[in-house]
Amino acid sequence: MSEQPNKKRRTLTGKVVSDRMEKTVTVEVTRLVKHQKYKKFVSRTKTYKAHDEANECKVDDIVVIEESRPLSATKRWKVIERRMATSTSAPVAE
């Protein structure tokens, strides 16, 4: 029962909301869904625990996570790419 190497896995993009665990980050993924009755787009948010092997992701980073085999009781995703962090602080004057 070997896994096929060219099998497509789901990927999601989200924001890191917690990095307090070792080699694990909590990623918040937001998606838009059209309301069935009112036809208005409503945002739905879900959190995923993802494996961060290098422990390099910090809070507010934008990351791409990929589906993987179960790594623990709650972890089923791996961080595959770390994009630019959203900076809300003002630049430091020199």
Short description:
This protein is mostly beta strands. It is built from no helices and 5 strands.
What does this 3D model show about the protein?
The protein has a single domain, classed as OB fold (Dihydrolipoamide Acetyltransferase, E2P) (Beta Barrel). The protein is mainly beta. It is built from no helices and five strands.
Shape: globular
Radius of gyration: 16 Å
The helicity comes to: under 10%
Please report the distance between the alpha carbons of the first and last residues: 60 Å
Overall strand count: 5
Which CATH C-level class is it? Mainly Beta
CATH homologous group name: Nucleic acid-binding proteins
Mean pLDDT: 90
Low-confidence stretches: none
Tally of separate helices: 0
Strand content: 35-45%
So, CATH architecture?
A: Beta Barrel
Main sheet record: 5 strands, mixed, barrel
Main-sheet strand order equals 1-2-3-5-4
Q: What number of domains?
A: 1
Please trace the helix and strand order, writing H or E for each element. Answer: EEEEE
Could you say which structural class the secondary elements and strand pairing correspond to? mainly beta
What is the CATH topology descriptor?
OB fold (Dihydrolipoamide Acetyltransferase, E2P)
